[in-house]
Design brief:
20 helices; mainly alpha; single chain; about 0% strand; elongated
């Protein structure tokens, strides 16, 4: 369930555009007005605001936000205001253009591929082509080392059936195929990629259940114990988690971003922005179940200022 709170009575896109334009004028910027408008509008409403702002003022709202805001608050507001497909496409491109493609950064590609609906993933790929004159899969193949590229291209190009239909016999058979590949230490076997990359989320969850019933361990545990490429093992484990329990994955992203020395604001922003209109309520619940602590309080205790207020607005708090 989503966490953003859209008011019962919402001003017209023109009125919201005027409020935002006023927030940019004069000495200083009215950050609270920006949070109050953009932090409480859904995807379609934000799109209409962008269109209205362009029509009325002849300027791009994203450009004005970029020039008026700063720091992590600026990054979060701009990421939120962009069209979701463009948002994901730009996140993917940033990862692929980074000279140091650490396994943690490559995991963003897994998030995009495995926690998006089939139609949304296609929209992301189209946006990527439009923005960069190249396909997402081509850029993965040309910039990520084998065998990681093999897995990531398979995931990025998938178009999964999105209904809840499940074939338990197929689940048992394919659990056996996965077990055989793991026994042979072949995590990049074509059978693994075919199953992980083509089956529906519901079918895969049934396969994961069948695997544990047949072999005693969870698939994740057996992958973890499989010798070989540690990075491939880590990516594949994340694929399993994102498919089986996406809310647990994002709860972990939030936790990891605020634990230890310093805050990983980019990861924290990504998790909140990506899930605020999807399942952030479930992420909040899983966070409490996993860490016996309030996610909201953890965030409040780790960040501050307008950035904190914006994240908490996306979480549904009254600022």
């Amino acid at each position: 369930m989503a966490t953003i709170r859209v008011p019962d009575e919402v001003p017209s896109p023109a009125q919201d555009s005027e409020t935002l334009n006023k927030a940019f004028r004069g000495w200083g910027t009215d950050e609270k007005a920006i949070i109050r408008v953009l932090g409480k509008r859904n995807e379609s409403q934000r799109k209409r605001i962008r269109e209205s702002y362009k029509e009325i003022y002849g300027k791009d709202l994203i450009d004005d936000l970029s020039s008026e805001l700063s720091g992590d608050f600026k990054k979060a507001v701009i990421l939120w205001t962009k069209d979701p497909a463009e948002r994901y496409a730009r996140l993917a491109n940033k990862v692929l253009n980074d000279k140091k493609k650490t396994i943690e950064k490559l995991k963003i590609l897994v998030e995009i591929s495995c926690t998006s609906s089939p139609s949304h993933l296609i929209a992301v790929r189209k946006a990527y082509c439009s923005l960069y004159d190249s396909s997402l899969e081509e850029d993965i193949a040309s910039s990520v080392p084998f065998p990681l590229a093999k897995l990531l291209v398979t995931l990025a190009t998938s178009f999964r059936y999105d209904k809840e239909k499940v074939d338990k016999e197929v689940a048992t058979i394919e659990a056996g195929m996965l077990h055989e590949a793991i026994s042979k230490k072949q995590l990049d076997h074509d059978h693994v990629l075919y199953i992980i990359g083509t089956r529906s989320i519901y079918q895969l969850r049934a396969t994961f259940v069948a695997y544990k019933q047949s072999y005693g361990n969870t698939l994740d545990k057996d992958v973890d114990g499989c010798p070989g490429d540690a990075d491939l093992r880590s990516l594949l484990q994340m694929v399993i988690l994102c498919i089986e329990f996406p809310e647990k994955h994002f709860a972990k992203v939030v936790r990891d971003s605020i634990e230890g020395f310093g805050t990983d604001e980019d990861s924290l922003t990504r998790a909140i922005v990506m899930r605020a209109e999807i399942d952030l309520m479930k992420v909040r619940g899983e966070y409490f179940n996993m860490y016996n602590a309030s996610m909201d309080n953890a965030i409040i205790g780790d960040v501050s200022g307008d950035y904190k207020d914006f994240l908490m607005t996306l979480l549904g708090s009254k600022i």
